[in-house]
Amino acid sequence: MLVDPANAAQLDAWDGDQGAFWTARSDRFDDGVAAYQPHFLDAAAITPTDTVLDIGCGSGQTTRAAAHRASAGSALGVDLSSAMLAHARALSTDVPNATFQQADAQVHPFPEAHFDTAISRHGTMFFGDPDAAFANIARALRPGGRLVMLSWQALERNEWSSTFVKAVFGSLPKPTPATPGSLKDPDQVRTLLTSAGFTNVHIAALTKPMYFGEDAKDAFDFISGQFAWHLNKLDEETRAQAHENLQAAMTNHETPDGVYFDSAAWLIDAHRT
């Protein structure tokens, strides 16, 4: 697999412990963002004959959904995580027009002008060189082809992430200007995509509740596991305090239907020139 050196750390994480964690809990991650899925797929406007590229597909839920809509076409999901891709293939045996490949979308030699639509549900926020990545994605789309993405808004607009970061790290990081590749700033997103060969960039704000577990204990186990890489480095007293903070946050957000936090995302769509 060809990987840009700028994405080496991402490969280590997603083809390592991070990917293993997400693979084992793929249903939980999919359930967490389920409220966004209909808006995302409707915006993609996939037709029955489309050829679709799903970037950062993870365990393939969005790839399978795209393949079902492209019933006479196909959907290719790409990701850095071999574990998640293996899981995606196992879950997709009854979706023959959904295929998966381990690839770095920033540099992978996709066939030129091949895809009708490229989609990504929170999978395009991690490129080491976003200019090169989106230029490569544009090259893979046919003229007039569509790019549709979900990305998170700023930390302070996402109750879930700001709460978890504060609970685990003790405080929120000092505000800094958004980097173009984070896709948090709409003006930067427009500049980035326009420079890469896209036009008609449209960005809509969405706010949805995110699900984290059936009760406070279930949600705590999930999130403390996700942050284990940091929690395990703390001294015993500090780690105990972080656990207490997380447990309190989960309890405060427990409802009869489970644990929910507010979230905010950008729904981005653009056309290749």
How many beta-strand runs?
Answer: 8
Global Rg: 19 Å
Poorly predicted runs: none
Largest sheet: 8 strands, mixed
Helical/strand content category: alpha/beta
Q: What percent strand?
A: 15-25%
SSE pattern: HHHHEHEHEEHEHHEHHHEE
Q: What separation lies between the terminal Cα atoms?
A: 29 Å
Mean of pLDDT: 96
Helical content (DSSP H or I, runs of 4+): 40-55%
Please state the overall shape, judged from the principal axes of the Cα atoms. Answer: globular
Number of helices: 12
Write up what this structure looks like.
The chain contains twelve helices and eight strands. The protein is α/β, with parallel strands linked by helices and 273 residues long. It starts with 7 loop residues before the first helix and ends with a strand. The chain has helices spanning 8-14, 17-24, 26-32, 37-44, 61-69, 82-91, 130-140, 159-169, 186-196, 216-226, 228-231, 236-252; strands at residues 51-55, 74-79, 98-102, 115-121, 141-152, 198-213, 254-255, 258-272. The longest helix is centred in the C-terminal third of the chain and has 17 residues, at 236-252. The protein is globular, with a radius of gyration of 19 Å. Strands 1, 2, 3, 4, 5, 6, 7 and 8 form an eight-stranded mixed sheet that branches. Helix 7 packs across helix 9 (186-196) and helix 10 crosses helix 12.
